[in-house]
Amino acid sequence: MSTQKQIFIDPSQSKSNTAQQIKQSCGSPIEVSEAPLNKDFRSGKKTLAITPKKGQAFDTCATYSNEYVCCNVKVLKSIKNCPFDCSYCFLQDYLNNSTMQVVGDTDALIKEIQSACEQQPWRLFRIGTWELGDSLALEAETGQAKALIKAVAKMPQVFLELKTKSDQVDSILDLDHQERSVISWSMNPPRIIREQEHRTSDYESRLLAMKKAVDAGYLIGLHFDPMIYYDEWEQDYPELIANIFETIPSNRVAWISLGSLRFKPDMKQQIMANFPKQQITHAEMVTGNDGKMRYVKPLRLDMYEKVISAIKAACNTDTISPIQVPSPNTPLFYFCMERWDVWEHLLGESPRSVGHLDHLFAQHLQHRFPHLVNNVASIEQYETSQDTPIRT
After folding, report:
1. What is the C-alpha to C-alpha distance for residues 99 and 129, in angstroms, rounded to an integer?
2. Which has more confidence, 148 or 326?
3. Which among 45, 124, 152, 326 is most buried, taking Cβ atoms within 10 Å?
């Protein structure tokens, strides 16, 4: 979903593969030593800068919290901002410079991944490039995902997650990915895509891209997050799930996450200013332990319960839980940033710690895809390496 952009490149990146692809697809970029500073959130989306890697790019997901269950996914900060314009996007209240930025030096990014693997040779890493941007929205211009997919194909400790709201998969379909890259979609019903996820690929295009990725041998990730409350949600979300699993088989879905709309209180005014016609800020909300506003708990539980029932029906299973040993057709299921009591209310159990959930990911992947995961380290190793205390 490429649009006309003004493109800048740091001189140090002029010989990188990214720069060469930029020149082929967009002509000669303007050389600058720093990404242009742009305070306006929307105009920044019309400017793309190819930058060197500055500092450490490899990190833990920023939503990590003592009060909530976190999956402990690692992130590679290789992208900032994206051309899409979602009304609920936290980046509109987070970025100091809204110019879209992509690290051109993929070799430096790959070395950081390799270093992490060397430091913890026992660990299975799940690594995403989506924390501060969309993993594939700029792929036609930059080719960053392609370079990372090729590198990770040779790393038996790593699953790379590329999360997107785009349909930009054609350039990665013929790669020798060795099933080590999971192409994930953030999905909402068509109405929410039309009204809240502006400039993203439409519902049908995402489904078609999903099928293309499965046909090319990729594993798929599904993120029903953020779920958004509106009048027809009870009909639309189950229909969304049924349509997805009519398009792709459940045995090719690595994991599914579920979460609801949430944002910091001071971001509400930003959303209302940037999107005066939206209605997502009108619902009753409360402030959670992490300082973010959420739907009241009874509503969240109701929404989650409907989606869980739809997933069970679509996957033909009675059990959806990260703790139970899955059948080959059952994806791993988890909540994103919900408290332990929500897990226990809806699933009857919860992971005992962040490290436990991280360990469960490894166990599930080994059970369902033994050709991709040979050994799984002990839960004690995973818990020893987590950053928050073990829940008692």
Report:
1. 17
2. 148
3. 124
As a whole number of angstroms, the distance between CA 102 and CA 99 comes to 10
If one counts the domains in the chain, the total is 1
Measuring CA to CA, which residue among 337, 341, 352 is closest to residue 386? 352
Tokens of 150: 């090729």
Cis-peptide, bond into residue 226, ω within 30° of zero: yes
Give the three-class secondary structure for 366.
Answer: helix
Residue 268, C-beta contacts closer than 8 angstroms, at least 6 positions apart: 281, 293
Tell me the residue range of the domain where 319 lies: 54-84+105-135+143-385
- Helix extents (H) in the chain: 17-26, 106-119, 139-142, 144-152, 190-196, 203-215, 233-247, 267-274, 297-315, 340-347, 354-368, 379-385
Q: For residue 253, is it within any domain?
A: yes
pLDDT at 64 over 60: no
Query: Which pair of tokens denotes residue 91?
Result: 């980046």
Give 182 or 62, the one with higher predicted confidence. Answer: 182
Environment class of 221 (CB within 10 Å of its CB; exposed 0-12, middle 13-18, buried 19+): buried
User: Are the CB atoms for 80 and 101 separated by under 8 Å?
Assistant: yes
β-sheet bridge partners, residue 137: none
Residue 129: which CATH number?
3.80.30.30
Please tell me the predicted confidence (pLDDT) of residue 26: 74
For residue 146, the tally of other CB atoms under 10 A from its CB is 18
Tell me if 74 sits within 8 A of 60, measured CB to CB: yes
Does 214 map to a domain? yes
Examine residue 29 and state whether it is found in any structural domain, yes or no. no
78 located within any domain: yes
Amino acid at 370: P
- Whether 3 has a pLDDT exceeding 80, the answer reads no
| pLDDT recorded at residue 388 | 62
Residue 189: CB atoms within 10 Å: 22
